[in-house]
Amino acid sequence: MRKDLGKQPAVFPMPVLMVAAYDENGTVNVMNAAWGMICDMDKIALFIDKGHKTTQNILKTKAFTVSLADKDHIDAADFYGIATGNKMPDKFSKSGYHAEKSAHVNAPIITEFPVALECELAEVVETEHMYAIVGSIVNVSADEKVLSENGKIDPLKLNALIFDQFQSGYYVATEKVGQAWNAGKEMMKAAQAKD
User: pTM of the full predicted structure?
Assistant: First the structure.
């Protein structure tokens, strides 16, 4: 039997994205954002409030990076979500983490996180119901330790954090259960046979 739970953002899993940008003085700021997603083959949309320090930095510098938080760095990932750059302007330096400037965009790469999308600001979408920063992905860089033998990112080596909107928990995916564009082939054949 189903139970009504009321209105809530009931989507799982959600990513744990570390969004980083420089301010006008070259100071690094990074925030934890779960409301973001790929929106084209070379675009990412971040649904972050315009009042965030990181958002303001992106609007000024027109560039940012998005790193995938991982299990090994859960403490910093959560810290970047708890602390706000508007009240703690030096929160990145207080974390003890390190950044290097992207070779492709004017934005910092947080070196401890194993995967970074290096982006240029493509568009700001502002409607009555949404505010989104859209970035053009210029490059993706990854630590070799998370690459498979074919040179692609291996999700099981990455141990990317997944945010749970229901219980406010962090999880990691630890099992591959199927192959995309293959798991549904038999159902597709059966559906086509009914035509």
Answer: 0.94
